[in-house]
Amino acid sequence: MEKAVLLNDKGLTPETILSAREAVVNMGKELIERKLVAGSWGNISVKLADGVYAVTPSGRGYANQKPEDIVIINAACETLDGVLTPSSESKLHTAIYNACPEAKAIIHTHSIYASALAAMRKPVPAIIEDIVQIIGGRVNCAEYALPGTQELADNAVKAMNGRKGLLLANHGAVCWGKSLDDALIVAEILEKAAQIAIICQSCGGAVELSNEDAEIMHNFYEEHYSKRQLGVEK
Of 34, 36, 137, 212, which has the fewest CB atoms closer than 10 Å, so is most exposed? Predict the structure, then answer.
C-alpha cells in the first residue's frame, strides 16, 4: 500500500507507468537492432519523477521483454512495482540521475568499439565534431570497479565530468539524455567516435580538438542546433 501511495503522490498514473515501460521495452529492441547490446547485457532506464525510475530487469533478454517485466524502483534501488529483480546496475543509474538533474533516460551499452577502448582503459578523444557537439568533448573512462557495486557508480559519476557519456573500464559505455531517443543518439555517436579513434590509432593517431573549440560547439548545439532538430527553433 505504501508503495502505491508513493507512486500516486508523485502523480504517476498506471497509464504513465505503462507508457514508460513500453518505451523501455521498445528501446531494448532498438539497441539489439543497432548492435549496441546483445542478449541481456547492458541496461536501460527512464526517470518517471524525482526518485522514481523504470529500469530493465536483471538477466532478461531484450528480444522477449514485455512491459510488465520492467521494474519501477526508487532512489535506494528498492522495487516499488514489478515482480522481477531490477538491473544489477541500478545503483549506477540512480547515481547518474542524482548527479545530473537534466538526465531523463540512461542507456548502458556493450558496443564493440566503445568496449574496446574501455578494455584498454582509454578515453574516447574529442576528434570529431559531433561527439563534442552532443556529448561535450572527450569521453572519460572510469576507474575499474566490480559491476553492480556502489564503487562502480561513484567512479562513473566522477569520470562523467559534465559529459553525457562515459566508459566503464573493462565493461562498456553509459550515456544519458533528456529522453530515451536523446540517450540513443549519444550512445550511437559515442560508438562512432570510438570506432574512428581506433582506426586513427592504427594509422598513426589523430589531432584532438581544443577544449575551447569543443566548448563553443557544444554550447551551440545545446542552445540552438538541438532545438532546431526538435522544430522549436528555425
Answer: 212
